[in-house]
Amino acid sequence: MQPTAVRMADKLRILVPVKRVIDYAVKPRVKSDKTGVETNGVKHSMNPFDELSIEEAARMREKKLPVEEIVAISAGPAKCADTLRTAMAMGADRSIHVDVAEDKPLEPLMVAKLLKQVAENEKINLIFLGKQAIDDDLGQTGQMLAALLGWPQATQAAKVECDGENITVTKEVDGGTETVKTKLPMIITTDLRLNEPRYASLPNIMKAKKKKLEKKSLKDYGLEEAFRLKTVKVEEPPTRQGGGKVEDVDGMIGKFKELGIL
């Protein structure tokens, strides 16, 4: 049974930012000088929350919604091209790689300013972003971008539905769910319950090699690198101390008193 097409006032032009991060299955190691995390020789992959964003954009097209184009974008070193190829294999039509030095990653505000320019240049009306990147866990870019563009936003989406001219987003909150509804243009940040991303199949990986990957710089968007934050020190979490056994309740109370809890 074919899905029913949904009428919308505007064709969907979707932007999906994707970030190259240390693979979620790899345990990060702090550099010996404690200036950051070691990335050389470490497996990288697409940020898991960004995979959800690409998947949701692809599903909107599969639901026969009027998706005109899905554009993936990444800002980082040359190896980000591999991440963008994966995004195109998962459903993006083309991609933009903004060249940024690996040792000088952009801060959330600069990323938001970049995405604002891209959205305006590409006439984007819907942006899917992962709610956070698993390398820095800042979770700020989507909200900053919404403020810069003046668009409505729905964060941490667990379900996205299109009903006529409206987009309805459901997310989990303390004690239940919250549902918000708005019209285009809008920004949605994705959470883990939204969907299960597909694997990039070999045929689609081969097709992705023929899709357009455009290389840009910050200057092409009228921007220059600006850093407002300074990393003072990066440290491993303290080693967890082993527990101890007590013989009875009196022993437990005595131990609490010894530790100053009681």
UniProtKB/TrEMBL annotation:
Heterodimer of an alpha and a beta subunit. GO terms for biological process: amino acid catabolic process; fatty acid beta-oxidation using acyl-CoA dehydrogenase. The keyword Mitochondrion applies. PANTHER family: ELECTRON TRANSFER FLAVOPROTEIN BETA-SUBUNIT, ELECTRON TRANSFER FLAVOPROTEIN SUBUNIT BETA. One of its GO terms (cellular component) is mitochondrial matrix. The electron transfer flavoprotein serves as a specific electron acceptor for several dehydrogenases, including five acyl-CoA dehydrogenases, glutaryl-CoA and sarcosine dehydrogenase. It transfers the electrons to the main mitochondrial respiratory chain via ETF-ubiquinone oxidoreductase (ETF dehydrogenase). GO terms for molecular function: electron transfer activity. Its cofactor is FAD; AMP. Binds 1 FAD per dimer. Belongs to the ETF beta-subunit/FixA family. Residues 34-225 form the Electron transfer flavoprotein alpha/beta-subunit N-terminal domain. It comes from the Eukaryota. It is found in: Mitochondrion matrix. InterPro entries: ET-Flavoprotein_bsu_CS, ETF_a/b_N, ETF_b, ETF_beta_N, Rossmann-like_a/b/a_fold. Keywords: Electron transport, Mitochondrion, Transport. Pfam families: ETF (PF01012). This is Probable electron transfer flavoprotein subunit beta.
